[in-house]
Design a protein that fits this description.
18 helices, three-stranded antiparallel β-sheet, alpha+beta, 3 domains, about 650 residues, 37 strands, single chain
């Protein structure tokens, strides 16, 4: 029976191998550096080592520092060692700039560390027979199984007398971690080594990663990964060498004709300058090929344009950031916002998308190893951007430029540069984001810049972050006047309500505190305390305010007054002026009313003045006792929080205009 089981499995695997056996040629090679001999395999037009490299160098390791594991799996190499560069140039935080052409790296003479493209070519051949690449490239043993089906399969199952059919049984068997090794490539589950774990070696039997020579960013290269629980390669995408800092190496043989990338030599690069007659500012320009660009970001002030972090110094350094409806008509006469196709022309001229970022970025000013070469004096600076809700991001790490080309659903195409990659990316963004502008010389054929947009400016909750309006209102019930502030689409009282009703209180029953902080109200009274035309805000209305005020830093810091707190004063960025009025609470010594028995032993406590601002919301908590309601808590210690508070407590009230 064991023989028959092996026979069926053998037939099945032979069928898989037969799909591609004609494309495989086996051989050997000897590394002259240490005399070690490796199996080789020619798959398609490529000749690969069929075993992991095991050449001992500095910064190379055996799994768990066990030499027997090196004999089994080969060695792990850090990136710098794998590409043949010193740690000072390709270690952590370094740019790791490789020369064009093959990267021999740690491989023997006549062989090189494969690029991601070369791995992709191998994977394409492996898939050509209709099988998943991981299945036909992984070894037939050593991988941990996804289940124990293999041990449960019996002859009757395979013959289909009952239970699973032979095909089903085989599929279950193939769902274990082992492959068919149909190409004799023999990927073994070597695991990897990391600098970030207490146990530096892990995943033996579960996965293996191979370095490529394709640098993906700061001290990081693209990996090709195989896993026990699937037959794909790289998890369906690209892995990066950040967690596993030492990985396996497979070398591929140099071709007869050494391929060297053509150096970036634009047809024409001519520096110049231009003056914007609207405000007298002068900009550097550069002609690259057939196009003439501004070599600096536009800094023309207009509606819907801002300085990063509202700091004029950032405008001086980086230019202004614009919403799309402003960007489309921001350029001076004789210049215009380039289309997506015109950005693509620039990238093609300087060598293509994969290296355009490195060529066009400034040679300083970027985080980590993000600096470019600025080879054509285009000088892309990491200006960052605004998210349309009052927050600014990415200064030092990101540069995004509007194009005039609209995408679907209220979006436009944006060109992205980053400190973590050498290429350029094309993305879609909502019109109310705020990005820099680079102008291109010329005119839009037959149209003005304004007429090409076809876009009515979309309102944003952040419009009034920079233009919030303060006014006054009078409560005609008692003649008191309150400051108000419009933030986004909402108009709020900018002071706490101080209208006297039953079940409203001054802190510590002192009128001076009412003058300073307004009154404290129980929830039932608060729901009807606001004057006509105003109301107690709901939970959703409070959250609308929060979304407008802040998405990244502290809501509390933005809303709290700039003085009066016991430390950690706010910035009062919107004129909301939340004061630390404290609260009034009831302490039941023996408990609440329960089962018809009323406990009257209680005491009143005032607390948290100077340290906490509490505001009621109108939204009740959905609990069985209906005891709590939404409240906002701003503290000198905690930045912001929304809670549900006891309705019998007395908190401050801020009224919202109907």
């Amino acid at each position: 029976m064991k023989f028959l089981l092996s026979f069926f499995i053998g037939l099945f695997l032979l069928a898989c191998a037969g799909l591609s056996s004609s494309k495989v040629t086996l051989g050997t090679m000897t590394d002259p550096r240490d005399g070690r001999t490796y199996k080789t395999v020619k798959i398609g037009s490529q000749t690969w080592m069929a075993q992991n490299l095991n050449y001992k160098t500095d910064s190379s390791f055996c799994y768990k520092d066990d030499t027997s594991k090196c004999a089994k799996y080969g060695r792990f190499y850090k990136l710098a060692t794998a590409v043949g560069m010193p740690e000072s140039e390709c270690g952590k935080g370094k740019a790791c700039r490789l020369p064009p052409g093959y990267v021999q790296g740690v491989c023997p003479s006549g062989w090189h560390l494969p690029s991601k493209a070369e791995w992709d070519s191998l994977i394409a051949v492996a898939r050509s027979g209709g099988s998943a690449a991981g299945k036909v490239l992984k070894s037939t043993s050593g991988w941990k199984k996804n289940n124990e089906v293999f041990s449960q399969v019996n002859l009757l199952d395979l013959l289909g007398f009952f239970g699973p059919t032979p095909v089903t049984a085989m599929k279950k068997w193939l769902n274990s971690g082992n492959g068919s090794d149909a190409f004799s490539f023999s990927v073994l589950p070597a695991g990897c080594r990391t600098d970030y774990e207490k146990t530096p070696y892990y995943s033996e039997g579960l996965q293996t990663n191979f370095w490529t020579s394709s640098i993906s960013g700061c001290s990081s290269a693209e990996l090709v990964s195989f896993h026990y629980d699937g037959f794909g390669v790289g998890g369906g995408g690209t892995a990066y060498g950040d967690a596993c800092t030492a990985n396996s190496v497979r070398c591929v043989k140099d071709e007869n004709v050494r391929k060297v990338e053509k150096p970036v030599e634009p047809v024409e690069v001519t520096a110049g300058s231009m003056k914007d007659t609207r405000d007298g500012q002068t900009y550097k320009t550069v002609q690259i090929g057939s196009q003439t660009w501004m070599a600096q970001n536009l800094n023309y002030e207009m509606d819907d344009s801002y300085c990063n972090h509202d700091d004029a110094a950032n405008c001086t350094k980086y230019g202004r950031i614009y919403r799309w409806n402003a960007a489309i008509s921001a350029c001076p006469e004789g210049w215009y916002l380039p289309s997506k196709a015109e950005w693509d022309t620039l990238f093609a001229t300087v060598g293509g998308d994969s290296i355009a970022g490195k060529v066009l970025k400034s040679s300083s000013g970027w985080y980590a190893c993000g600096d470019g070469t600025d080879a054509v004096s285009f000088s892309v600076l990491p200006a960052g951007y605004g998210d349309g809700n009052g927050e600014f991001w990415g200064k030092g790490s990101d540069a995004n430029f509007w194009s005039s080309t609209k995408a679907d659903s209220g979006r436009s195409f944006v060109v992205e540069f980053g400190d973590w990659f050498n290429g350029v990316k094309l993305r879609e963004h909502m019109y109310d984001y705020e990005f820099p502008v680079r102008c291109l010389k010329g005119k839009i054929s037959g149209k003005s810049a304004k007429s090409t947009s076809g876009f009515a400016a979309r309102s944003s909750p952040n419009d009034s972050r920079r233009k919030w309006v303060k006014k006054n209102m009078t409560d005609f019930r008692d003649g008191k006047t309150y400051k108000t502030v419009k933030i986004g689409s909402q108009t709020w009282m900018a002071e706490n309500l101080n209208y006297k009703t039953d079940s409203s209180f001054c802190y510590k029953d002192s009128a001076s505190y009412c003058d300073k902080y307004g009154r404290l109200y129980t929830w039932a009274v608060a729901t009807s305390a606001c004057p006509e035309g105003w109301h107690l805000p709901s939970e959703d209305e409070w959250k609308t305010l929060f979304r407008v005020v802040d998405k990244r830093t502290s809501i509390g810091t933005s809303l709290k007054s700039a003085s009066g707190w016991n430390g950690d004063e706010g910035l009062d960025s919107f004129g909301f002026s939340a004061l630390p009025a404290g609260k009034r609470r009831i302490e039941y010594i023996n408990g609440r009313e329960s089962n018809g028995r009323k406990f009257t032993d209680r005491r009143i406590r005032y607390s948290e003045e100077g340290g906490v601002a509490n505001f009621w919301g109108s939204t009740e908590a959905k609990d069985s006792e209906n005891r709590d309601a939404y409240m906002v808590y701003l503290s000198s210690k905690r930045e912001n929080a929304g809670f549900f508070g006891d309705k019998e407590y007395a908190y401050s009230v801020r009224c919202l205009r109907d």
